[in-house]
Specification:
Elements: E1 2-5, H1 10-21, E2 26-30, E3 49-52, H2 58-64, E4 70-73, H3 87-107, E5 113-119, E6 127-130, E7 134-136, H4 143-147, E8 162-165, H5 178-197, E9 200-206, E10 208-210, H6 223-232, E11 238-239, E12 246-247, E13 249-251, H7 252-264, E14 271-275, E15 281-282, H8 283-294, E16 302-303, H9 320-326, H10 334-343
Parallel strand pairs: 1-2, 1-4, 2-3, 4-5, 5-9, 9-14, 10-13, 11-16
Antiparallel strand pairs: 6-7, 6-8, 12-15
Length: 361
């Protein structure tokens, strides 16, 4: 049996469906957090056992681990949230929740596989090259530069233009917001657990995931969901900065398949892996593709020039290690995936306590 924490969520539920389709016995542990769910979702797989409980509850976790051979840890509070008032909740859900799970795994003398849902946000800014100085890491973004519409990072040595390149798993971690810091800490906690226990831990660093069952109308949603929600309401998607931010948009079915590969195929593959399409696209391109998919009468995206310090300019993935060592490569086409996403209803969430400030990219 495989335990999927957060198995009622956007990505977790697709992992559950894929595991069930592969004949695996699955147990879901999910608290149905109001920030993500207005009610119990009707898409929950009836062939999976469902336990409504919080991963921070040691008694619930201990019971849920009974008879479990592998754990897929998806449960987390995601996105950049509203403001720093969210910091305690992020640390509690993501770091404390992971710590409780690891303690109970250790107490149960668990010797199976652990797959962690990590994120590309642990990298901070992506990778860059300067024509004069080679590989460089840009400094944190300057709010005065951003306010003046100068969004591209510069070489810290010469101030020259930088060329963004694909980020590899060997890149140093540089989390630049609270959510990113908690994801990096999850990886560190799991690495410590692996060293202490010998349990193989695979950290899957998801890039920008999109697809059916994304939550709508919440500051915790990804940029694709926010664009789709605006279009569904007849409003123009608001694209921040100049829309040129490069990301890797990967379909949720590919992400689910990466988890199934890590959980079930051959010998465990410990370490971190980018889960991505391998093809960078701009945020503006995603907004435009969604508007096209909604039809000729859909409003066109509006490029606003707004920015948020917690965001980064460019981050997209090298998919080589996942293909070579994990045996995973993305297969879902971008155009077809976006067209399908445009037809998929977004999941309702309970209203946030305050209005969202800016979408996450």
């Amino acid at each position: 049996m495989i335990l999927v924490t957060g198995g009622a969520g956007f990505i977790g539920s697709h992992v559950v469906d894929d595991l069930v389709a592969n004949g695996v016995e699955v147990r879901i542990l999910d608290s149905l957090l109001p920030a993500a769910h207005a009610a119990r979702p009707d898409y929950l797989n009836p062939c999976a056992e469902f336990v409504q409980a919080d991963v921070r509850d040691p008694d619930a976790v201990r019971a849920a681990l009974t008879g479990v051979d592998a754990v897929c840890h998806q449960a987390a509070k995601v996105g950049l949230g509203v403001d720093m008032l969210d910091v305690e909740e992020y640390v509690s859900h993501n770091d404390l929740g992971t710590a409780v799970l690891l303690r109970e795994l250790a107490g149960a003398r668990f010797r199976g596989r652990l797959v962690l849902a990590s994120s590309m946000v642990v990298y901070g800014e992506g990778a860059y090259r300067c024509a004069q100085h080679g590989s460089v890491g840009p400094a944190p973004r300057d709010p005065l530069e951003l306010a003046g519409g100068r969004f591209e990072p510069r070489c810290p040595a010469c101030g020259g233009e930088l060329t963004p390149v694909a980020v590899e798993e060997s890149a140093p971690l540089d989390p630049r917001n609270v959510y990113a810091a908690t994801k990096a800490h999850q990886e560190h906690l799991c690495s410590a657990f692996s060293r202490e226990t010998g349990v193989a831990v695979t950290a899957l660093r998801y890039h920008n995931v999109y697809g059916a069952r994304m939550p709508r109308d919440t500051p915790y949603a990804g940029v694709a969901a926010l664009f789709a929600g605006a279009l569904a309401a007849g409003d123009a998607p608001r694209v921040f900065e100049d829309g040129g931010q490069l990301r890797d948009f990967v379909h949720v079915r590919d992400v689910a398949r990466a988890n199934v590969v890590a959980l079930t195929r051959g010998e465990p593959r410990p370490g971190a892996f980018n889960v991505a399409s391998g093809t960078p696209r701009s945020v503006g391109e995603m907004a435009g593709a969604l508007a096209d998919a909604f039809g000729e009468h859909a409003p066109r995206p509006q490029v606003t020039g707004e920015f948020r310090l917690g965001d980064v300019r460019h981050v997209f993935a090298s998919a080589a290690r996942a293909e070579r060592d994990l045996g995973f490569s993305a297969v879902e086409g971008f155009e077809q995936g976006v067209a399908e996403f445009a037809r998929s209803p977004l999941r309702a969430a309970a209203p946030p306590r305050t209005a969202p400030r800016m979408p996450r990219t």
